[in-house]
Amino acid sequence: MIYDGTAAIDRYRGLYRGLDALIDWLAENDPADLSDGCTKLRGDLLFANVMRPTTRRPEDATYEVHHDYMDVQMDLEGAESFRTTSGPTVLEGAFDEKDDFAQLHPEDPDDYLAATLGPGRFALFVVGEPHMPTVVVPGGEPEPIRKVCFKLAVDRLWEKDVQL
User: Fold this and answer.
1) What's domain 2-158's architecture?
2) Is the pTM for the entire model greater than 0.70?
3) Going along the chain, which residue ranges are E strands?
């Protein structure tokens, strides 16, 4: 996971091809200008999902994990917290290859790191990293927010792109 201010995102250039493409896009575009829904920025290699969820209490949320796409999450309106866990996890059901998504829960529910997003911050969750997004901020109540989740294909998928 990377958790930082959006003004500092360029310091992570060179880590992943998808992140480099997103950094280039952010240099010329404001994510707040994106329409709700899915916007392809570089085909299936880099796209943005803009949504308006309501934050949830941790007991009403689950961890998720991906194999082919990293998430870069930013809040556009309002604020959310998120959690990650580094301990052992248990898969809930089968991994959905089509949607690159699985839900899981930690063996120890008290083994987590929590942080708050909000405008001006981002979190990058790498493949295989359990993360629980859209959690109510500490001391707060569930509230609607507007957020963007940029989906960045892992480097092995960029290598298959003949248009580079």
Assistant:
1) Sandwich (2.60)
2) yes
3) 2-5, 37-42, 46-51, 63-65, 69-77, 81-84, 89-96, 101-106, 113-116, 121-125, 131-135, 146-153
